[in-house]
Design goal:
Elements lengths: L16 E3 H8 L3 H9 L7 E4 L6 E6 L10
Helix pairs in contact: 1-2
Length: 72
């Protein structure tokens, strides 16, 4: 089985920041599936970002320098 990002690695900007929603759209899968991939360790390097003053958070990845660096 190939890495989930292997089919879109050519579209990943090394300097861009990607959220689970961004990756879901790029891969054509549901955001919950991206979260499952992250929890399963297939998308390492994600960091939690605060998105609201009330403490809302989301996971984000930094292009090739983040979780995508291990894509074959």
């Amino acid at each position: 089985m190939s890495h989930p990002l292997s089919r879109v690695v050519d579209r990943i900007d090394p300097d861009a920041r990607y959220t689970a929603s961004d990756l879901a759209a790029m891969l054509g899968i549901a955001k919950t599936n991206v979260n499952s991939l992250a929890l399963g360790g297939l998308l390492p390097g994600g960091v939690w970002e605060t998105i609201s003053e009330r403490g809302g958070r989301r996971r984000a990845w930094q292009g090739i320098h983040g979780g995508a660096s291990n894509v074959p």
